[in-house]
Batch of 2 targets.
Target 1
Amino acid sequence: MKKYLLSLLMLAGLQASAQEIGLNSRRRWFLPDHTKFQFAGNIGFVSGGPGYVSRNRTLETDLLVGFLPQKFGGDALVTTSLKTTYSPWRIGLRNNYYIRPFSIGAYLSYTFGPQFDTKWPSYYPAGYYWWATAIRPGAYLGGKAGRNVVINNRRRSLELYYELGTYDLLIISYVQNKGFLKLHDIVSLSLGVKFGFD
Amino acid sequence: MLRWTGLGLVLLLSSCDDLFQYNPNEETLLERDKNLTAKNIEKISRLPVTDTTRFILMGDSQRWYDECEEFVRSANRQKDISFVLHAGDISDFGLTQEFKWVNEIMTRLNYPYVTVIGNHDIVANGSATYRKMFGPLNYSFGFGRDRFIFVNTNSREYAFDGTVPDIAWLKAQLADNPAHQNTIVVGHVPPFDADFDKNLEKPYTDALAGDTTVKFTLYGHQHRFYEGQFYDDGINYHLTTSMGARGYMIISTWKGGYKVERVEF
């Protein structure tokens, strides 16, 4: 856990030092455009990490490291996730506030642990189990609200977002059992915050 | 204001069990979902014992929730059933969420139910969740003239390392029968299946055949009704089918005999 937190902090530090240039400067292309911290969403109790945004600011891609402490999960689990979120519409409000009312996205997560497999061991016949236990693809809908601010002559943004998501194994369970399972049985909520370094 | 928001958030977090999910493989359980084997054996022990004991064997509920609900409706219409045995593969992906869903359905039975672990229940964090939710992977209990031994027979999940099924434990359980109750061994994978350790097949079937109180033994896994004396040793092997195939068995035992009926729903 400490190791991951440390690397996150280092990323954040890297970010800060790259920003000493001023309002009109263009940052170097490989530096992240934002960092996110998320609560829940099947990629950790909390997760966080850097991300990039497309030039028109509708498409975000994030690399998040998540941690689930045993206290909240029954098992301590570390997960890395690659997330892509598309938020096509922006509605500007007064005082530099804005909302992006609709987001749609997908992720791929990898959970570490000897009990999880990406490729089943050789003592299983081919196709014995068809899914990988370490890797989960998922999808979500959501929205966000934010504000553009200028801090120390640097452009920043702060966004809060929510996502309602599910993943492959729950979707297939739902599709085959629409009598017993309702949509709310397979959908869960996640909340997050994004710091933008525009 | 902030305090009320905080309080509201805490209430929201604590009241909505599944609103937030942290990992597909999390093992979060409410107190009422824990130690179900012990709780249900306790319920069974308080049931009256009559001349004939009738119980249901069903299994392989994995990702067949709608069918499992229909099973419960069908089972609740049966007469004089004492309890239900689930022959394993409760879940499909070994996810806690699946175990909870099946338990939610099975608690609508008019009878207590107990389970044996299936190969799918061992996948990922499945066996850890099974332990927390149900209890030990190998266990036994007695009811009336009968004694039930539940044994983990999912050898493939342990890379056929020779530890599963635990033959020494099984033999000790068989030997520990001072009241000479009829012994009914229940497993998920039958010993003639490719998922059963070939090196342990003979020790296992010999252990059953060597005990005069064992007349028949029960399994699931193959998603079909199947039965026979496959080892020419007087022991009847009975397999129940899956929930997907919409079938289960009613087993009646009495002094000196037993009967197996197939039910389709």
Note: The beta strands of chain A are 34-39, 46-53, 59-68, 77-86, 91-92, 97-111, 135-151, 154-167, 188-196.
Target 2
Amino acid sequence: MNLARAHVLVGVDDEARLAGVEEVLAALREAVADFDLSTEVQVVETGSLGVSGHGVVVAVQPDGVYYAGVTVRDARPIAEEHLLKGRPVRRLLLPTTAPAARPADVLTRQKRVVLSNCGVIDPEKIEEYIATGGYEALGKAVTEMTPDAVIDAVKRSGLRGRGGAGFPTGIKWSAVRTASDPERYVVCNADEGEPGTFKDRLILEGDPHKLLEAMAITGYAVGAHVGIIYIRGEYQLSIARTERAIRDAESMGILGERVFDTDFSFRVEVRPGAGAYVCGEETALLESLEGKRGWPRIKPPYPVTCGLWAKPTVVNNVETLANVPDIVRLGPAWYRTLGTPTCPGTKVYTILGNIRYPGLVEVEMGTPLRVLVHELGGGLLPGRTLKGILVGGAAGAFLAPTELDVRLDFDSLAERAAVLGSGAVLVMDESACMVDMLSSVLRFFRHESCGQCAPCRSGTDVLVRLIANLQTATADRRTLDQMVQIVDAMRAASLCPLGQSVALPVRTAFAAFRDEFTAHLAEHRCPQCQTTARAHGLHA
Amino acid sequence: MTKDAIAARHPRSPEALLSLLHDLQKANPENFLMPDDLALAASHAGLPLAAVRDAVTFYSMFSLRPRGRHIIRLCESPNCHLAGAWSALDELRGSLGVDVGETTSDGAFTLELTSCLGACGVAPVMMVDDEVVGNLNPERVRNTLARYREGR
């Protein structure tokens, strides 16, 4: 960044756009100029500042002051009172009503590796990324390290895939490195679709160069010269920012021919998806990239030997890749100081639902669920009690409040037969009906089942009809058992993880909230279920 | 821009199929892919017409039927469900006078349901074309529709 006395960071994401951030930005710049502060104060347009539900959020650094719900009218008071006279505008401060956690603490208590630049630098200025140490790791890799040394560093870091499965990244890379075919690809999975998840969007919109740097390092390590980012079609701003970042990096000679003046060349392309959750499954994604419908392939062979166009291919999630530059730059030993011995590093979570501060946080692997819900999320709304938590997205597990002490990492959750998944944490208070919530999960799976294999295609449809019976009080004693039989069959016989994973939300919801489900068997008038049934045109 | 000019901006490869289809669909005011578009995409990408139809019918963002000038996609995933997406749906149905999957008689809007849009911080959420509209309540739905009816 330029040498300025203060930076006014304005978070630009969809929520801020909705609240008129463009006008606020213009007003702030005008006000700064009016008070003759242009040489001392820089107004920076940046990605999301990690606070949701507060309209336009503005941070003044280095003061660490956060303003919420900023409008055009507030620009002059901020410039005059805070920037000129040094007195923060109290009425605009981000609310600090919760004694348990204050938003400013929420932001400082995180450990940000993946999101270190998000909301701090201007994502549309490559110079700002470089000023924070960006592209240093790529330069170090291609000029000082052999490809094998890069893979070795990633292996020793213990980095595991953040897309949900937790597979060791270094092992994946070395399988591609040692493949016999010299034509190889690096594919970044940015088809973020797990309900309740928007971490990849934040990285793409807040720090796209970090992803490009990571992909080039991956390409160097595995011997690939083409990288492809598959971004879901609905993420228009992500696509635009990433494409712009590619152009800027190419014009500076960082990507393209002769990276850092070496013999290594690497180019990156963006490909949009077109609305299909199943394309987040890596082989379906590859099919989609080849211009086909996104039907998962039968594995093996795995993409590391037979991926895009049947060539060896690394497929990594956005968040996984965003860890790579710091691992190369600061070394695997540094990385291992974070997280747990088997799951080093940090994890980005989205905390949502009936919670005081919904939003996105990055903390070390192994952080207890309780800390996320009650400290970083600020706890429940006043007067409400916790009823349940859906951890890991639609393909995740329903947990009872007694599970709050579970640690959030791949292995601790596996011990509880749950999954980390995409890191979505949906908090529900007593106003939520678990039958109704599960019905939403099941309708999601029916809509997104790709139709290729019978267990998933038919199973999701029958499950939606059975839970509709529960919602209209027309189910009988056998309904719950039938649902369990179906999800178990789907787990055993479905072709891809989509169908296999439906068992998890169904079984965990039944286990943790059995009484509520059996209550819906009898004559039962549940207001939430009635609303849903009416919306879907279902009748008792 | 002619359809041929749109195609010329994409590489002649199956890899370009989805982006080409997006662009062709956007060029039609009624937000759908016409038979000629599919034929053009097939010859440009070097794929059989049947393969292009196969892909088009798979992805939810493509349509083979004419739609409204604006596409409304309301999220029905668990987080928006919990936040009360149904009251927004009631308002959309009432204000537009159409059900899910239908187009208003003046050709202005098509109402669709979608899976998670990744804007969960402002649930319940819908997209109108490329714009994300969140914190939906009946009033916000009405105001948004009015804004689009008046041409922004």
Note: Confidence is low (pLDDT under 50) at residues 97-102 of chain A.
